[in-house]
Write a structure and sequence with these properties.
Elements (H helix, E strand, L loop, with lengths): L2 E4 L5 H12 L3 E6 L6 H9 L4 E5 L5 H14 L5 E4 L14 H29 L2 E6 L12 H21 L4 E8 L5 H6 L10 H12 L6 H13 L6 E4 L3 H9 L3 H9 L2 H12 L3 H8 L2
Parallel strand pairs: 1-2, 1-4, 2-3, 4-5, 5-6, 6-7
């Protein structure tokens, strides 16, 4: 039986990924900070008789990562797949956020991945096989205000994943970067809500764009199914945008110069809202006012 470890499996993409791999016959190690709170996942696993075990893991902690992998390796000699999904999002204007916010996001989204990669690689390298799937984001290739802390962490994750792929390919280990667009998760829903008492309008109006997009939501199960497919594939393709808006977003950004991109996001409210309507058919203004009323 093949095995997979998934971080941040308590909700959203991680939750659906744990179920997708379990239903495909994998031994699933579903990790999270508080396993006792994953009642729904536990109940579904029991109901469907899935080989799924809940484990405590805080990717911010060296000791927690060490203990979690030690527990896994007591049961199995190796892991076939590691999915680094755990992540947090914070948004706002750079001037108006404390430096601790940037450190917190980088600790989880970047250093947390490195901790898990370093823990799993020795056995994968010795065995000469394995897959490491890192959940980045379209925001790992497109930086938009007010997502500076999140985008910075995902840009960093993209970079370290690209370097990692070069290092481990000679050992038969595949590295995949998954880049979801706007997915119907708690994280995406949180971006909808922004206060207007800021010197910078981007947070409020960007939240309106997310709210408008989520009127036609993309399920996190789409990302989960993609990762299952990647784990079972034999190709070496590195980057995998996921969701109906992912490639269009990337192509749209690529069509602009850096100066045009800056001007697009620095525009006054009236111009920006009109551009969103013309580019995506979304009424970001109405949704921003509705969500934050």
């Amino acid at each position: 039986m093949k095995s997979v470890m998934i971080t941040g499996a308590n909700r959203g993409i991680g939750f659906e990924t744990a179920l997708a791999f379990g239903r495909a016959g994998y031994q699933v190690y579903a990790t999270m900070r508080n396993p006792s709170g994953a009642i729904e996942l536990s109940n579904l696993a029991n109901k469907e008789a899935l080989n799924l075990k809940l484990l405590e893991l805080d990717v911010d902690s060296d000791e927690s990562v060490k203990n979690c992998f030690s527990e896994i390796y007591k049961e199995t000699e190796h892991l076939d797949v590691l999915i680094n999904n755990a992540g947090i999002e914070r948004h706002g204007a750079i001037e108006e956020m404390d430096i601790s916010v940037f450190k917190q996001v980088m600790e989880t989204n970047y250093f947390g991945v490195i901790r898990c990669v370093q823990a799993v690689l020795p056995k994968m390298r010795e065995r000469g096989s394995g897959s490491i799937i890192n959940v980045a984001s379209v925001a790992g290739r497109i930086s938009s205000s007010p997502l500076a802390p999140y985008a910075a962490s995902k840009f960093a994750l993209e970079a370290v994943s690209e370097a990692l792929a070069q290092e481990v390919k000679p050992f038969g280990i595949r590295v995949k970067i998954v880049e979801p667009g706007i997915i119907n998760t708690d994280m995406a829903k949180d971006i909808q809500h922004a206060k207007r008492n800021s010197n910078y309008p981007q947070a409020y109006r960007f939240g309106g764009m997310f709210a408008a997009s989520l009127e036609n939501p993309t399920s996190p199960s789409l990302v989960a199914d993609t990762m299952l497919s990647l784990a079972q594939s034999k190709d070496w393709d590195l980057r995998h945008p996921v969701g109906p808006d992912a490639i269009p977003f990337l192509d749209w950004r690529a069509s602009m110069t850096d100066e045009q991109w800056t001007d697009w996001n620095a525009a006054d409210d009236e111009t920006w809202y009109q551009n969103v309507t013309e580019s995506f058919g979304l009424d970001a203004r109405a949704h921003a006012e509705k969500v934050n009323s």
